[in-house]
Each structure stands twice: as structure tokens, then as C-alpha cells.
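Posting this for the archive.
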Amino acid sequence: MSTVEILVLYYSRYGSTAELARRVAHGVGKVNGASASLRTVPPVSAICEQTAPDLPESGPPYATPEDLERCNGLALGSPTRFGNMAAPLKYFWDQTSGQWMSGGLIGKPAGVFTSTNSLHGGQEATLLSMMIPLLHHGAVIVGVPYSEPALNATASGGTPYGPSHWGGDEGKPLSQEEIDVALALGERLARMAQTLKDPATP
């Protein structure tokens, strides 16, 4: 089986999206020959551009556009911001024209995940909007099919478009169904990356 690396790239403000990212990465690790690299992006200022240190104070390192070229697949995560990805993640994608021109993501599997405080706060719209730059880059979009039992059991987050988490005002932890959907996406991305990297010979 081919050795593949899945880039789990996310922005998290209060920790829920980061926890989803860790679960997706764990799902990747369930596949023999697959590993996950967790990466985040620095916050941006609404007033003026600030210079972030090269390494965050805690957690995974910051992503670079070159990480998109090195990976065999990608999981992209963000909290919901009015049905769209958060500004720091959008800022990162705005710097990837070089990778778009070179085709660094063409043919690589990619999935998305999100978290929000309100149950109908735009989870699915955020997931769909995060797919747009991935499609422009030529990635192969991977969701979670209804063969995953957690999709039929969840009473909070979790969609066929990708994992999601409903935290509520009290910041509730991930439900078991939300965890299961995140694990399923990671595992699917890893298996798809292996298939696309080393397709069976007819």
C-alpha cells in the first residue's frame, strides 16, 4: 500500500475546530501507510496587518503554501463565519496563486470540516464555501457517505459534506457522532489518497 501524507489544515478560535482536526488526523492514522500533518494559520487583524511569530505559542506549526504541494491529500477546517470560512484561512488561500498556477493540488483528495455555536448557523454553507478554492485548485472533493452510521444518528453536527460540530452557547464537547464522522473523513481521505497515488493497473 502506498505511503501517503494528509495535510489537516485549520483555523480555530476557541478549540472546537482544533479538536475536530485532531479527530480527522486520528482517522487518517487508522489507515496503514497513512500519516497526518496538523497545520494551522495565524490570526489576522481587522485594523492592520500584524506580523505573527514564525511558530505559534502552542499547537501545530503554521502552514505554508508549499505544504499543499508536499501533501497527498488535504482536510480543511474552519469555524463558521456567516456561512463562510474564517478570515485567517481565507487569507492563507489568497496567497496560493503560485500553487494554483503550478497545479500543486490537482488530483489530490480534499475534504472540509467546521464548527459553530448555533445549530443553524451556516454549517453546511461554510462547508460548501470551503470547497470553492479546492475546486479552483483541481482537488478531488471527498465527503462522508451515508454508509457512515453516525450521519443517521447525529442530533447535532455531522453532514455528508463533511464533519461539523455544534458547540452551543455553553461550548459543549464533540458528540460521539461528530467524532465518528470526523474519523470517517480522515480514513476516507487516506484511502482515496492511496488509490489516486497508486491506482490499480487494469
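The helical segments are 16-29, 66-70, 87-93, 97-102, 123-136, 150-153, 176-197. The domain at 4-197 is CATH 3.40.50.360 (Rossmann fold).
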